[in-house]
Amino acid sequence: MTADSDPASPGASPSGPAGPSAPAQFGPHRFSGGEGGDGERFRGARFDVADLRGARFTDCDLTGVTIRDCWLADVSISGYLSNVTVNGVDVTDFVNAELDRRHPERVQFREGQTADDVRVLWATIERLWAQTVERAGRLPAWVVDEQVNEEWSFAQTLRHLVFITDAWASRTVLDEEMPYHPLGLPQSWYPAADAAAIGIDLSARPGYAEVLAARADRMAVMRRIVAGLTDGELGRPCPRTPAPGYPDEDRTVIDCVAVVLDEEIEHYRFAVRDLAILESR
User: Fold this and answer.
1) Assigned domain for 90 exists
2) Which element (helix H / strand E) includes 223?
3) What is the pLDDT of residues 154-182, one digit of tens each?
4) Which of 76, 102, 152, 195 is the most buried (most CB within 10 A)?
């Protein structure tokens, strides 16, 4: 399957370090640097004998970065890996294989080719999320709004998947002009003005019951789309862009469905990772 929302797909092999004129990729799900970033301020920078303890790099293009003779302890790295070498060992394949072992739904996604494959994968996604929502429900009520390491809370993650379904399924596959639920949560870089234009209030703080209801409704939308898919339908062009701010590109049904599936899989991985931390507390 393809996933047009990911300019740097897992397993992709870039041609090498970006040249001085090459555009940066600000994270796998960001289409531009937007406002508030440092742009090219640190391109080609050198940090010699620098104390970077506690530094955080979010939505950064680190292509071609060299870390030499440094002390790396308690370091957390999350992102799309290609040609990542640690102490002379390319760890890319090891990391991806371990992720596949822990999350076999990733393999289902990569190997899917037909409408039946999509249906099987969607059934897997529904089962995994049902288990995860039940797991979150066993924790104290406040936990669903607790952020781990500045990542989205469990409730925010569900709200984001509502937006993804609206943008990449209802808007594109079903050709609905304004399908956006007001409590949907776009990507963190999404401009506030664009969110307001599609009826989303980024400052909203809905209750968890509202979030669960919206999520159940949007999962039902995907269930209906997936149930009616045929192999011939997969290549049909979709006439609309997902939402303001997305690149104006040609997209097919399978492109759009694959974005939803990919987002469901990746955010499930993030959700269970953070729930494990919250449970340990």
Assistant:
1) no
2) helix 208-228
3) 999 999 999 999 999 999 999 999 999 99
4) 195
